[in-house]
Amino acid sequence: MVKRGKFGDRPGTEDPLEVATRAVAPMPLTTQPMVAVRPDGVEPRSLAHTVEAARTAMIQAAGVPAVLAERGPATIDQQPPEIGLTQHHLPEDRKPDERLILHLAPDSERAAQFRVLRHHMLAAGRPQVIVVTSPSAGDGKTTTAVNLALALAECNRAKVLLVETHLRRPQLSTVFAVVPPWCFAEQLAAHRHQPLLPWGLIDIPQLWLHVAAVNPKPEHAQLLDAPAFAIAMERLRLGGYDHIVIDAPPVQGTAEVNLLQDAADGVVMVTRARRTTRRQLRAAIEQISPRKVLGTVMLDS
Q1: Residue 48 has what pLDDT?
Q2: What is the Cα 70 distance to its own chain's centre?
Q3: Between 40 and 251, whose confidence is greater?
Q4: C-alpha to C-alpha distances, 37 to 1, 107, 127, 177, 292, nearest whole angstrom
Q5: What percentage of the chain carries pLDDT values higher than 70?
Q6: pTM
Q7: Distance between CA atoms of residues 145 and 160, nearest Å
Q8: What's the DSSP call for residue 11?
Q9: What is the pLDDT of residue 185?
Q10: Contact assessment for residue 72 and residue 64, using Cβ atoms and an 8 Å cutoff
């Protein structure tokens, strides 16, 4: 969160930062109270166009006649997807990545604050698809996405999927010390044309977490395919996951987060203490839909 006087005075009531700014005592990791979302967890007006386009693409790709599609599209896109899991264990011969805070230091103050973030998230209407982003690179969005997913997974053993969409700078393969057997970027391209193909995900039993990671070695398209991502979220929502956490690119310099938020229920904005300015935060929130911002998180630098 942004403290009064640190990045300027608090804005007025009409400022979009009101969606994400509240004054509380500073902590090494501070979480913002979340803004309540609709009971069904979806903003219909912003999601309708993207989901309808995804559904049309799915029906066409499946080769269903138009008459059958009109009679019952649910027979195609409401079937639970087939998910193949590749089990992966964190290496025991080296120290886990320091960004796995809830795994390395589950009783620490920082871990506790991620659980506070989880509490705010659940109190906001239990959004199923959550985009985690930041105004600029290096603000700690991957750290937040990973530990939010871990915190959600440890709550009544919820079924959680962590998805990577930052194609230019993928990090999850490094965080979990794994090479994805099927790169998520490649899966998006394949499922765009064959939406009923099985999905290939990584199962990490130690963390009670499923991961869809991007292989950092091949060169990927510079921008995310919005219709393909909409199809993916439409299908994976039916996969039995309580929560799908999206590790997204930063807002600055790209429109990808705008595309991602259309298929999501809400956005968490991550900032870095003594680094993220008020102007950067304002610009980031104004670029995306302020109504989609569930809250902000400030990481200690």
Answers
A1: 41
A2: 32
A3: 251
A4: 20, 30, 8, 35, 8
A5: 73
A6: 0.77
A7: 12
A8: P
A9: 92
A10: no
222 has a pLDDT exceeding 90: no
Check the CA dihedral 79-160-116-283 and report its sign.
negative
Token pair belonging to 287: 């670029």
Mean pLDDT of 94-119: 95
For every residue of 128-166, DSSP letters joined together read SEEEEE-SSTTSSHHHHHHHHHHHHHTSTT--EEEEE--
The residue behind tokens 């300015």 is: 277
Token code pair at residue 3: 């403290």
Considering the chain, what percentage of its residues have pLDDT values greater than 90? Answer: 59
Residue 212 DSSP label:
E
Quote the tokens at residue 138. Answer: 């290096």
For 30, 32, 122, 244, the CA distances from 39, given in Å and listed in that order, are 26, 20, 12, 17
Angle CA 252–269–291, to nearest 5: 100
Query: Do residues 141 and 132 make contact, with C-beta atoms less than 8 angstroms apart?
Result: yes
What pLDDT is attached to residue 289?
Answer: 83
| Radius of gyration of the chain measured on its C-alpha atoms | 19
Q: Please name the residue that has the structure tokens 């400022």.
A: 15
pLDDT at 18: 44
| AA identity, residue 95 | K
Q: What is the mean pLDDT of the chain?
A: 80
Structure tokens given for 267: 């956005």
The C-alpha atoms of residue 56 and residue 299 are separated, in whole angstroms, by: 41
Q: Look up residue 248 and give its amino acid.
A: A
What pairs with residue 212 in β-bridges?
163
Torsion sign, CA atoms 220, 268, 236, 57: negative
Residue 75 in this model has a pLDDT that exceeds 50: no
Contacts from 1-6 at CB under 8 Å and sequence distance 24+?
1/30, 1/31, 1/32, 1/296, 1/297, 1/298, 2/271, 2/278, 2/281, 2/296, 2/298, 6/278
- Taking the CA atoms of residue 54, residue 49, residue 33 and residue 112 in that order, the dihedral angle to the nearest 10 degrees is 10
Q: Which two tokens stand for residue 46?
A: 């912003």
